[in-house]
Queue: 2 jobs
Job 1
Amino acid sequence: MPLPADTDVSIPKYLRDKYAIVGIGETTYTRGSGKTTRALGTWALRNAAADAGIKTSDIDGMLSYSNNDSTSATFMAGDIGARLNFYMDCIGGGSSTEALIGIAIGVMEAGLCNCVALFRAMNGFSQVRIGGTGARSAVPINGDMLHNRAYGWQSAGQMFSPSFMRYMYEYGTTPEQVAMVKVVHSEHASNNPKAYYKKRYTVDDVLSSRMICKPLHLLDCCVETDNATAIIITRADRARDMRHTPALIRGIVGRCNKPRMDMHYQTGPIERVAAYYAKDILWPNAGVGPEDIDATGAYDAFTFTSMLQLEDYGFCKKGEGGDYVSSGITRLGGRRPNNTSGGHLCEGYTHGMNMVIENVRQLRHDIDDSCPMGPDGKRQHTYDYREGGCRQVKDIEVTANLGWASPGTTSGMVMRRG
Amino acid sequence: MAIQGNYMGMSLTIDDLDKENLTYFRHCADHAFHLQKCDDCSLLRYPPTTGCPWCASPNATWTAVEGKGEVHSYEEVHQAIQPAFKGHTPYIVLVVDLDTQKGQPSTDEALRVVGNLTTPDGVLASPELVRQVGIGTRVRMVFADVTDGLSLPQWTIDTGATQPVKPWRYPLE
């Protein structure tokens, strides 16, 4: 049900910039971690606390998301010596990060706790494969699942592809334009020493890779990796005492949907994604618009997902997504780089959290590339974006993360440099 | 009563509490496609639900619906994820606009019924047949029988209909 036009859904203005991401932590992005999700999660949480310059026992709230492929906060908390005043483990993958940051702000504002750690731990390659192959593929098919799985229509790529195909039909977008998403993100990944795939790819590489589910070639699809990521959120006034420049949270939209989440194809246009609805919450909440954003983290589970979200969040006109992603705008050195880490297509897959981590580092002006270390312990960025070089966006002030669960569900978040 | 059947090597079950799906697939087993029609706003809906997506009424009547329509979108699966389909690639998943209720209650809405492309007797189509179908192809519903009380609706090319000269297909072919 659409909100009446005169409804003010914006975050109260006093909440803008009141909370900040102060700590970020990752494990390596790998295949075959040789560790449980519990060990991966506590590794990332310890890194996040160290990054913030706090003790893990300072964490008193915890949030996580998974699809029953992770370990609950109940185990993580004890392993890092934290006594929690609040925790919640949620079901979900993509689009959870931004939505749960919104929940973290809410529970802190309500006085339930003071310092929330959010984690995602997964063996997305060696245990529960994110592409849907392996054990996940052959589960018994029951009830509502008969309307999709019985037709061999079940993995993420398979469930989304009718939207992608109809988009190309409606707007004449070419496979070459879409492939540029992978090309650009691979350029970024080549400047990211921790990316799983650091190789630069060409349009021909993408289009000559084997077809998985037309219109998706292998290189239109993200990488499956084993890893954990964590972020720590607290009030901005506390953030001033911590190690790094805080990434202030300007505004959020969380798990916003198209009608008919049970099968969004019933409501057209089927190439329209949930960002169409979410933009009217995110931008008023943040008090900024697409033109104010210096870098985006548009979820790239597939090349198409970045493009469609950038379009429906309003970074270009409807139907011009192909031009936008192939114009150079989204490249490092362009007006508004997208997924400077290489994203899910190249860096690793953690259901969106690594894209938030990347933008936090960008806003600190302290991206972890190969630029030389200065006497102050910070990298001396060259802004030379050639292969193996810099990936810091110059003078960046405001970022947007655009999360994706499906064409029918999105979350978004705007952050600014504190 | 619960239903369990085997289709192409997949185990398909419907629990005894799941009245909506039991009724939907029982009509399919009779080779008579039915959808729930809202008793209050008269709109049909797909797939089965416990309430009307437009007016929230829980009251509906199963109503016969003609299984004819046009391909709204499609995908062609070359790497099967579902093990049962591994020997059948490339296969196609169709999202079909039914003629009934197309453009209602708003312009971009339609009853979009999912299925594979099959032969007229409900057997998964060959790769040669798959290549002939695209956006705009006219199709008619057929049924793949699984067990008593359970058949799956599928789509086959409607040879009796006027077909587009060239249905729209993915560009690089």
Note: Chain A has a mean pLDDT of 95.
Job 2
Amino acid sequence: MIINHPLLGPRDASEFVYLGDASLIDRPDWQAKDAQQQFHDYLYLRDNPAGAHRELWFHEQGDRSWLVVTRDTITHEITNVELARDVALQRGRGR
Amino acid sequence: MPRLAPSSPLNGFRQEFDRLEITEITDLALVSIASPQGREAELASAVSGAYGIALPPVGSSVEADAGEPRFLGLQPGQCFALFERQDEGPVDIIARKLSDAGYYTDQSDSWAVLRVSGTRCREALERICPLDLHPQTFVTGAVARTVMEHLGVIIFRDGEDSFLLLSARSSAPSFLHAVVTSAKNIQ
Amino acid sequence: MSQTHRIDGGLLDRSRALRFTFNGTSLEGYAGDTLASALIANGVKLVGRSFKYHRPRGIFTAGSEEPNALVTLRRDGHGEPNTRATVTELFDGLVASSQNHRGPLRYDLMAVNDYLAPFLSAGFYYKTFMWPKAFWEKLYEPVIRSSAGLGRLSGKADPDIYDKGFLHCDILIIGAGPAGLCAALSAARSGARVILADEDFRFGGRLNTETMAVAGTSGADWAQQAVAELASMDNVRLMPRTTIYGAYDHGIYGALERRTDHLAESAGKPRQVLWRIYSKRAILCAGATERSIAFGNNDRPGIMLAGSVRAYANRWAALPGKRIAVFTNNDDGWRTASDLAAHGADIAAIVDTRDRAPLEAPAGATVAMGAYVTDTKGRHGLKSITLSNGTTIECDCLAVSGGWSPNVHLTCHQRDKPQWRDDIAGFVPGPDLPVGMRVAGAANGALTLAAALREGHEQAHAAAEELGFKPASIALPAAEDEAVETSAFFHVKADGPRAWIDLQNDVTAKDVKLSHQEGFRSVEHLKRYTTLGMATDQGKTANLLGLSVMAECNGRSIPETGTTIFRPPYTPVAIGALAGRSRGKAFRPTRLTTSHKSAEERDAVFVEAGQWLRAQWFPEKGETHWRESVDREAVRVRESVGICDVTTLGKIDIQGRDAAEFLNRVYSNGFAKLPVGKVRYGLMLREDGMVMDDGTTARLGENHFVMTTTTANAVSVFRHLEFCRQCLWPGLDVHLISATEQWAQFAVAGPHSRDLLRKVVDPEFDLSNEAFPFMACGEVTVFDGTPSRLFRISFSGELAYEIAVPARYGDAMIRALMDVGEEFGVVPYGTEALSVLRIEKGHPVANELCGQTTARDLGLERMVSKKKDCIGNTLSERSHLNREDGLALMGFAPVMRNEHLSAGAHFTSRDKPATTENDEGWMTSVAYSPTLGHSIGLGFIARGRDRVGEIVQAADPLRGKTIEVRIVSPHFVDPEGERQRA
């Protein structure tokens, strides 16, 4: 596979390491009342779509960026690649 | 006790092949410079004040005046300064110029550096480098981190027919074997 | 033997005669020959024995689709079984031998299998060898394996070398026949970077084997001109002898280039190169493959595909027979007859299944329309054929044409389903081609020459335009649209002798019918039950025949019956090529510490720790057992001082205004208030609450830390920290860079370590306990000015330091340390002694941090702060991970002092049998403690902390040993930690 890195252009998937669902960005608040339940769901509950899937890849043998890659799990078509940092900031993550 | 004597990762390796040469570069200093979040402008202005250049974006490099460092853009918020080794500590040299505008880490001893040059150098690198090194795609001055024979490598094109390859010091013999094998296999 | 079947003409260099041997007989051919064409020229008909029935077989095709002519090339370790003679370029000194026979090829003892055919039909394994069950492994399978099969491996290491590589292009053109050459010219003239690859050693494809003209010259000449133009362009890479064997995601193609297979010796150069080609667009111009027709005894030597017979005559000037008959269901078969007649061959007959003759037959040929072949004779070579009208015709070669199937293989590699086209009676590429792929020419069902040229040009034009190139206007070379009408007649429906469908796997029409009868009717079941199409040729000449028989059984059409699809590789790829250089020590990189050379000089024994080679122990003169060395090293550390290279630990340089806060969140214990100049042990959890890693982190400055990780987790911890930094807390000012390689780091441990370091560290630095106490760190200089970092940390439990110098000084440093340490009796110690010392001290390593253990299990629950957010904190509080009867890390000592503990043993109560139900935990680490004089262990056991003093069983069924052990504190030596603070 080839991942079209937003800063570097197309790079072979062998330079990357796969983590999993991009929802891992949405780490819950540890002080929430039901924090344990939230963390449980965050860590263990995943959708398994046959189709578009947003997932985290790390450009380990490259620029060390974490990326959010939108990939069709059936065709491997990649429709979007974003810097995970930008996605995290958009989703309200900060300090 | 006498002072400690330095040694290079590949003992100054050098070998010539047909239109191809592989040489260890031992006199380089490397310092990583990270730009503090929210204060990127301060670093930028320190760099332009000290060296008269702008920091390069990821994937490219920019060279200050002769004798000054070349900066390689390696990852968001981080670049490498590459310059000739001197008596003074590499971090001290940069810090003297840029003060505390960035975070500096000495990387001079982390890497084995090979120069692969000659008109057949691309042909040899085809055997291990997954990147497209066509001169219109990977122009002189381009830089990238990639993987060759399972080893992380920073590749920097410092001329039409010349590349610098940086790979981890501890695995330098394996890396050299990979590069030399490529050279032999195309001859 | 001379070249009895050689005729004039052909694309051969007759000035270069090449000698070769086949089964020991010395023969001669010319440069430009394949092994197959040279064998044909020499009148050799019988070239092998079939897979199952050991039937005599001859050359069937002239290309990579060959099912029969598999030979073993070269000798000994160089030997390569199952090589298709039809694609083996002849070289001087080539040695080939036939396969799958016992005794001489002509008198194969295993031919008896042919008479056992009634017992060897589809699925016979499952039916015949069911009983008695025990016979399968011992008797049936070995017998079947030795009697059925292909060539044999030499069993020796392959002395040749192989390589891999990466190529990039705008447009990859697969196949250099008329469509491919036209596409390449068009694409290249537009300025695109083009790779043109063809499996043949001569570009041109069918242009080299046909007599049709292109642009007023012969096809072969036009091809040469096109190749010459392409070769002159620096945006074109021509790759002859290269098979594109697989189409992968996003325009990536696998290619096997045979670099020296056509030479007698590789001369130390790679024999084959496996390329990964990155293309923006690809144009598949793979042509078409002729298929056969199934009829009685259609597998005899001398029965060949018609287009191949023609190819041997036209390109290789070799006539497969003196008297040749043609059996066809289409117009193309007639061209074989006319071409052969033009070469002076005697055409015995043209047998066409259709009613109306499309073309004129050569003079003297019997023409039988609406007829078909029902049987043949000639055990080692064809003698005669029998027709449906009862006549028998003598001939030594039968050219069979069942029409042409587009080579859709690569279009299927991403699961595209080929679609049936009635007009050509074949499957063409479906609508879901691999990304970026276009198909042109015969591969696309355009079976005429003019159409192939046109499609090649058009597809290249479109591809170049898509990529933003300006396609050059190009005059299409003039060529004709030859007659190619065909009919869907694929098998003779008669209850005669066996009719072969898959020659390589010996599948007959009867097997397909049996499969239907037994309920295996879907094409996928048919394939697996009969093994149709599962041989090394993937049924290139056979699949459609099988489908037609199954369709007839089902009473449905071929498209209704369906088709299987193809997988990579298009043709077989040797394991050696897939391995490339990754053999022996080159299988993976080796990492060496800077003290490696010095350790080698001290005869150290090394151990692999991941990619690292680490000194395991340093034997001294007179030591005959590793334990002697290890015990000595451990004792010396406890009594005096030892030095161990600890460079392999991961080191991460962490800087930023929020670096302290960041560490506070990734470690479970507090780091926010760690003073500058101090080191702290840190425990890192995974988000699920399990321990991920541990190590020490030193604060070098207000905004500057250096973290150490375990050797094994250096990479994964770095990745995790980057995840935290970029994805979880992108607003923190924190920056990471690996410093593992930058520093050569040595543990200096033992009561004399301070004395030793005083001789190393420059005098302006105060090393007294007051100035530089336990867990202090700082930047110092050594040996008159070399910059260095000093950490007062202890893994052994002794007064100890770790000292780091820039890696370039590592070699000099270890030598200097050993020199100045001589007066204290310093020893170098390896990973074994390191392990002994840490087990004595009760420090956990990977054995204990196995991914299934919590801080509480390790007795470190107080290191999980409840006052802050950190990775793993919340889920570590889950009730299940905090059960009263949970595991605890404890020490274990044998009740009988002289017994040895074993790692991996499981604990049960003394009064209970050692079964899974009674399992209470396991031993993680063991060592012989020279300090205590007996074996000691660490391990996890339920409620361990309440059971100190209790005796339990440690059962090790793998080693057949159960012993009694006493539960003790995990801190065997200096539990109060006084020594390390001294």
Note: The interface with chain B takes residues 7-8, 11-12, 14-15, 61-65, 83, 85 of chain A (CB under 8 Å).
